[in-house]
## 1
Amino acid sequence: MGEPVLYTVSEGVCTITLNRPERLNAFNVEQHEGFIGALKEAARDPAVRCVVITGAGRGFCAGQDLADIGNQPIGQIVRRYYNTWIGLIRSLEKPVLAAVNGVAAGAGVSLALACDLVLMAESASLVQAFVNIGLVPDSGASYFLPRLIGYHKAMELALFGDKVSAAEAQALGLCNRVVPDEGFQAAVADWAGRLARGPRSMGWIKRLIGRGLERPLDEVLELEAHLQEAAAASADAREGIRAFSERRAPNFTGR
Ligand code: T3D
């Protein structure tokens, strides 16, 4: 068995691959630790301009490894690992793209929903599997689901635990795009490349849209003013405005 998490950086795109394909990339402690380390490194490394999270083999992530459950108190595992990586994805000031190459279940769905953009391969699917084994949604599922699709649909998925096809996920608003399997890697590379060539303000846009969901209008207006000052002072904003007046495409550097 190889490393449970693979990490590469190329042309500004960091790709983090969950790599336990024989278990559909379900999380054990080693995979949690590798994933948390990878997210911290992606946040720290200035060469990383966007992050792609995907799975090896035919699955994206099947949530908790059920062969590994019960070795530690569940609340402790959820707080120490799942909650930590969900927080890291949300606070990472770089766009994070979930490339859902195959089935996602339980916390694997939460992982996709925590990302900023979600691309699904046509054959991929999502399963709110918690109820099927007598558990409750975790890793932010109860936060993301009703916000994305409303209370009743969230309840339907969470109470019945049925498989949702990629096409249905898109119709519900659980992913941005569905791509035919054969074109999936190219579509992921296209979006990741665009994000990696984007300006520094992309990270601040992520912070703003996230706060816009949660905070009252007056606070968000103030945060917009504050971050607009920061954005306007960035090298990328200077380049963007110069490029506009020179009628050419901007060359952003992420600073
Ligand atoms: O512990 C805590 O801290 C609590 C935290 C909980 C967070 C959670 O995520 S709870 C939810 C855990 N996940 C599940 O309940 C999902 C279980 N898996 C499934 O329901 C199905 O496998 C799928 C719907 C994901 C895929 O179905 P299918 O038919 O495409 O594949 P399969 O044949 O069921 O699975 C393929 C293999 O992966 C199989 O192994 P085998 O027989 O080839 O040796 C299967 O056992 C293994 N596998 C799939 N999911 C898991 C798993 N092994 C361990 N843990 C899994 N979650």
Note: DSSP finds ten helices and ten strands in the chain.
## 2
Amino acid sequence: MGDRSTIVISGWQSMSYLSDVGNICWFLEPEFTKQVRRLHQSVGNAVTEDRHIVVGTGSTQLFQAALYALSPPDAFEPISVVSAIPYYSSYPSITDYLKSGLYKWAGDAYTLKGDEPYIELVTSPNNPDGSIRQAVVNRDGGTVIHDLAYYWPQYTPITCLADHDLMLFTISKCTGHAGIRIGWALVKDKEVARKMTKFIELNTIGVSKDSQLRAAKILQVVSHSCEQLGYPEDSESFFKYASRLMADRWDRLRDAVSQSGLFSLPEFMPESCNYAGEMTTPHPAFAWLKCEGGIEDCENFLRGYNILTRTGKHFGAQGNYVRVSMLDREETFDMFIERLSNIRL
Ligand code: PMP
């Protein structure tokens, strides 16, 4: 996209803490709000009508804001936070690192016992295994946080307009701009949005305006490319381009895996994508690689071939699984494929 997403921020800009005093989320930049709504509208992946937008320093801060907002303030015991195995490995540590009196990590959602209140995290598509997920506990007294970081067309077919009560998104996975540290929550309930805003007020007194303005510009360029306004006729939309790269990487990974005969990967079925207007196949941001043939510590085994991965144990699973990033730089990915292809027992 060249210089299309360049912005200039003058020295006198963004000096106040406040951005939009009439809004529940008073540190939310109006231009960022506009571009978030526009992008969801262009992609068709989530409802934004009648939703409050809360901006965060990455969706990591919003996850913590959501736990704060959904936990009963004066309960006798901290509320249980669960997610189905394999879950995103940061959830347990983020939930427990401050030993909060409000909430505590309670592990795999499938093993949650009793009838106490709970908060369930649903990541879809899932990190680490790319599966499409729904809540599994489904009983009274529970609330659900939907982490939709990967619900973008380069990773998965957009099969429906998500309209859950609390949805988290992040520019880290939408375009790859993880260093900008911007995420957003789409929140149905006004009080939940208010409490999440309060958390961010107490935690960081708002979210960098410079980052919001930069994120707004990037999202604007992405929406513009989706709507194909004013670009040369042969230009691809951002998501088509990214989908092509992901498909290519997955093809190469599957070839390497079949050559070695030592590993297996999850299989994904094509589905009709409302955004692409055709059948598309999932190409997740991570590969959930299983070591076959009795190798119990897959992370260690691969380290022996200079391939760094993350053991399944961090995700509540077994050590014969590892998570591999599919989003690294081209040179790193090329090297990974070459090394994996050359493994022979
Ligand atoms: N949720 C999921 C499922 C993720 O995989 C990640 C990043 N690895 C995050 C949230 C964190 O995103 P952010 O950079 O917006 O804090």
Note: The CA atoms of residues 91 and 105 lie 8 Å apart.
